């Protein structure tokens, strides 16, 4: 006869999910409390809300309804992820759309700091590199706050991505029409080097970032006017063909007030011009720094494809921000997990292995659950082939 199942057994019965989740536990201690707005207690507290968000992204669910179905029908999700009394549709979407944003932001910031302490740095000799870019997210016409065009709604995330450790560092949210350049000063800290594509070219901003003690390596348009102050020697036959101290822009129109360095290099007949205030690196290293900017594009692509973060489950601005933060927290948990278990970066191979381990342990959990009419009839059991489809897709 199956033994009685107690809540404290859950972590022992599904150790892989607990190992993934464990870095969050200590963060809860100093977190601002999530309190009910009325006299009724919360049906879904913040821990359950965050667990549901992590589970949503980890298992590649495609909608809020899909997640709710799993939380109701699957033994593992019902016993480990959902609140003890279950969760109603209205309570779930109320929580997603109106609660927990302060707590999610706190967890993201604390978890990012924790990951930054333990993950190795790949390019320490190049300095503290932060790729900065924005990413548009398709919205629906009823999401009036996501202003973009009259016939199209889009939201935008503005992300700072730590290149050395391959993890997100800071994030801001706007409607799709918002300019990306003002967020550079908010994302970068003094001493960090922002790595950006040519959309971020702005000569006033180049002066501003230098005044703020921040470094940058920004691609500029090829036809930008250049006033050479001092030329530096370049190695003949290499990819770098230009290295000089310059003023950028047309005098008395849009010329930079402060001198900066300009490096030109060519790869596969494609020319790149990189404006920077990093004088401590060689021209070849400046070229390498800009090439590493592609890491943020790789992250966006992987994040969208494998964690389904852009399958929006809420239409409010609050719900959108909550879901994106939940997706970033999931990625940070995976980064810590992959490092601690394999000394590797996050990869879909390791994520799939983790999914399979959780499913196998969930079957053991199912065997340990007490017998009840719902278990006997199978009314609340998700078909096993559905679990397997999550693991192998």
User: Can you list the strand order of the major beta sheet?
Assistant: 3-2-1-4-5-9-8-7-6
Give the helix proportion (percent range): 40-55%
- Major sheet attributes: 9 strands, mixed
How much of the sequence lies in strands comes to 15-25%
Give the averaged pLDDT, no decimals: 87
Low-pLDDT stretches: 1-8, 371-393
Number of continuous helical runs: 15
Polypeptide structure, described:
- By secondary structure, this protein is of the alpha+beta class.
- It has two domains: 7-104 and 309-392, no CATH class; 122-302, Transposase Inhibitor Protein From Tn5, Chain A, domain 1.
- It is built from 15 helices and nine strands.
- It has a nine-stranded mixed β-sheet with strand order 3-2-1-4-5-9-8-7-6, sandwiched between helices.
- Helix 2 (15-25) crosses helix 12.
- 37% of the residues are buried.
- The model is unreliable at 1-8 and 371-393 (pLDDT under 50).
Topology overview:
Layout: H1 10-13, H2 15-25, H3 46-58, H4 64-73, H5 75-81, H6 89-98, H7 101-118, E1 129-138, E2 154-162, E3 167-175, H8 183-187, E4 193-196, H9 203-211, E5 215-219, E6 226-231, E7 240-248, E8 260-267, E9 270-276, H10 283-291, H11 294-307, H12 317-342, H13 348-368, H14 373-377, H15 384-392
Parallel strand pairs: 1-4, 4-5
Antiparallel strand pairs: 1-2, 2-3, 5-9, 6-7, 7-8, 8-9
Short description:
The chain is 44% helix and 17% strand.
List its salient traits.
9 strands; Transposase Inhibitor Protein From Tn5, Chain A, domain 1; elongated; 393 residues; 2 domains; disordered C terminus; alpha+beta; nine-stranded mixed β-sheet; single chain
């Amino acid at each position: 006869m199956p033994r009685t199942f107690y809540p404290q057994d859950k972590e022992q019965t599904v150790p892989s999910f607990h190992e993934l989740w464990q870095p969050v536990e200590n963060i809860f201690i100093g977190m601002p409390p999530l309190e009910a707005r009325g006299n009724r207690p919360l049906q879904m507290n913040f821990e359950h809300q965050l667990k549901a968000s992590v589970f949503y992204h980890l298992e590649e669910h495609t909608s809020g309804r899909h997640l709710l179905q799993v939380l109701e029908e699957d033994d593992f999700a019902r016993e480990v992820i959902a609140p003890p009394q279950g969760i109603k549709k209205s309570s779930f979407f109320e929580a997603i759309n109106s609660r927990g944003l302060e707590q999610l932001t706190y967890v993201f910031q604390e978890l990012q700091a924790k990951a930054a302490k333990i993950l190795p740095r790949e390019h320490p000799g190049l300095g503290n590199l932060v790729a900065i870019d924005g990413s548009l997210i398709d919205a629906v016409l009823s999401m009036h706050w996501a202003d973009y065009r009259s016939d199209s709604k889009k939201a935008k995330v503005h992300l700072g991505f730590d290149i050395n450790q391959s993890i997100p560092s800071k994030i801001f949210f706007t409607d799709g029409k918002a300019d990306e350049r003002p967020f550079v000063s908010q994302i970068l800290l003094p001493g960090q080097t922002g790595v950006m594509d040519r959309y971020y070219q702005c000569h006033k901003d180049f002066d501003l970032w230098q005044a703020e003690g921040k470094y940058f390596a920004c691609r500029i348009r090829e036809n930008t006017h250049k006033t050479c102050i001092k030329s530096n020697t370049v190695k003949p036959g290499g990819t770098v063909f230009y290295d000089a101290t310059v003023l950028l822009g047309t005098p008395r129109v849009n010329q930079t007030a402060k001198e900066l360095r300009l490096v030109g290099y060519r790869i596969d007949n494609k020319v790149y011009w990189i404006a920077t205030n990093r004088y401590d690196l060689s021209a070849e290293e400046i070229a390498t720094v800009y090439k590493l900017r592609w890491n943020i594009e790789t992250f966006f692509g992987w994040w969208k494809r494998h964690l389904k973060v852009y399958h929006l489950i809420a239409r409010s601005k609050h719900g959108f921000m909550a879901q994106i933060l939940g997706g970033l927290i999931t990625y940070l948990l995976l980064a810590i997990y992959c490092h601690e278990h394999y000394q590797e970066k996050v990869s879909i191979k390791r994520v799939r292995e983790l999914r399979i381990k959780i499913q196998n342990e969930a079957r053991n959990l199912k065997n340990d659950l007490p017998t009840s009419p719902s278990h006997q009839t199978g009314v609340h059991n998700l078909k096993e082939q559905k679990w397997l489809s999550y693991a192998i897709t």
